[in-house]
Amino acid sequence: MKRVEGKVVLVTGGAGGLGAASARMLAREGAKVVVTDRREDEARAVAQELGDAGFFVALDVTQESQWENAMARTLEKFGRLDVLVNNAGMGIVKDIETMSLDEWRLVHAVNLDGVFLGCKHGIAAMRKSNAKGSIINISSIAGIVGVGQFPAYSSSKGGVRLLSKSVALHCAAKGYGIRCNSVHPGYVETAMVEALAQAGGQAEKTRARMLKGIPLGSFGEPDDVANAVLYLASDESKLMTGAEVILDGGATAQ
Ligand SMILES: NC(=O)c1ccc[n+]([C@@H]2O[C@H](COP(=O)([O-])OP(=O)(O)OC[C@H]3O[C@@H](n4cnc5c(N)ncnc54)[C@H](O)[C@@H]3O)[C@@H](O)[C@H]2O)c1
């Protein structure tokens, strides 16, 4: 039996990077996967790659009505929801002195409001499905330690960390059988990290500086995160809730 056979998963930000890698791995391990993103063409292509196991729904995670639609379409198509991967995210590289209030709000709208809405509507859909559900929130090591260059990203990801624990405790107290955990990657090779390296205008130098902070000496690959998502999605992690999975090559162990 495959590791998530028969489970229905919704992944946000599934058009590329960690979301697409997670969608592919979950489908390989037997799940039906609803691939969502606001980048519609790319996310639709990922869903099509998965054949019968994939289904595309447009979802901007900041819009509550789109969450309601995504959950309704998921239940209509696959009949249930077992796993939600709140993966969509963005960052703006500006320090506290240069960031505008609108930029601050935008980062929090996507990274924190989006996860709040996901947890809220995810729990409702999982309860309708009578599922032993798993909510997996992609935070960051920037949600554990502060980062001078991007305070809004760090603040929003720190919020995701404690929101996840609060959701976990609520669901446990209610006896829903729904778990909620956060995942904290360090630097992983995706478009987001490429943009971060390019932001200072000296990509090679920046990459070398980023690598210096990683004791294991290399960036992560998207499948390093997808493997953690797969574990949390599966019943293998049935004792885990309110916990943090850190995947950073030792960066925050120092
Ligand atoms: N790559 C890393 O090193 C790294 C490290 C730590 C945490 N993360 C987190 O992992 C997650 C995935 O990042 P990634 O590296 O794959 O980046 P990415 O930029 O490749 O993917 C992010 C996806 O989120 C989508 N998105 C952005 N705003 C959205 C919105 N409002 N509604 C719906 N979708 C939206 C984008 O379209 C994109 O497809 C993010 O939450 C990110 O913060 C990434």
TrEMBL record:
Positions of the Ketoreductase domain: 7-144
GO molecular function: glucose 1-dehydrogenase [NAD(P)+] activity
E.C. numbers: 1.1.1.47
Highest taxon of the lineage: Bacteria
Signal peptide range: none
Keyword set, alphabetical order: Oxidoreductase
Class in the EC hierarchy, top level: oxidoreductase
InterPro entries assigned: KR_dom, NAD(P)-bd_dom_sf, Sc_DH/Rdtase_CS, SDR_fam
Matches recorded under Pfam families: adh_short_C2
Positions in coiled-coil regions: none
PROSITE patterns in the record: ADH_SHORT (PS00061)
Family, per entry: Belongs to the short-chain dehydrogenases/reductases (SDR) family.
Protein name stated in the entry: Glucose 1-dehydrogenase
Organism, scientific name: Corallococcus terminator
